[in-house]
Amino acid sequence: MTEAETFVWYRPSTRISLGIAHLAKQNAFRWLASVNISPESENLPAINASAGVQGIGTGNPGYSLTAEKNWNLSTGKFNSFLGVGFRSNENHAHAVAGAKYTLESGISIGFQMDGHQTHPFITYSKDNWTTGFFLVDGKQPAYMFGLKF
After folding, report:
1. End-to-end CA distance of the chain
2. Does 103 map to a domain?
């Protein structure tokens, strides 16, 4: 199980993100990449591919391909994604999905399904800061925070 994971992302372009994550429990690093293959249009979702790679014994190395769509609503924004994920230490694919509703106030509620577990969350964002709570597999409370610079 991954615990206390710290991420640092760098976006060299609007369609490519590169990152590194430190997994505290395993004292290991995960190399990350995300590529927007096809940008979202009014009628079609964005198509994204991602990878998170590290030693098999240290976490969940994996790859995904997802379709993501955003909608502007009168009271906020709605985002959803659906796709397929593959973990290197397993021999089959998993469905991955998520949804998030963001109010004008910066509060978001949603869930993320990683193919094994579903994680509901609530966050608050203001300027470059985000903080929030989520339930790992809907059971174990955890917190998150982020800063964009």
Report:
1. 29
2. yes
Task: State the 10-residue block means of pLDDT for the chain, 149 residues long.
Answer: 79 95 84 96 96 66 92 97 89 93 97 91 96 91 89
Paired with 134 in beta bridges are 121, 142
Buried b (16+ CB within 10 A) or exposed e, 54-91: beeeebbbbbbebebeeeeeeebeeebbebebbbeeee
Q: Are 88 and 56 in contact (CB under 8 A)?
A: yes
Per the structure, how many domains does the chain have?
A: 1
At residue 59, the pLDDT reads 55
Q: In whole angstroms, what is the distance from residue 101 CA to residue 1 CA?
A: 28
